[in-house]
Description:
Blueprint: H1 2-19, H2 24-46
Amino acid sequence: MMLRLAYPAVTNTFTLLRLLPLSDREKDVEILVLRPVIVKSNETFTSL
């Protein structure tokens, strides 16, 4: 159970660190591309 909670936290932290050196436009594109993935993962975790 703790691994299920720790894994998304760690991956989100690395994603945030990866976005730091990007420009605002690149960040906006990245967010738009990943938005469906984020919604799907939230649906998966809320159904547990």
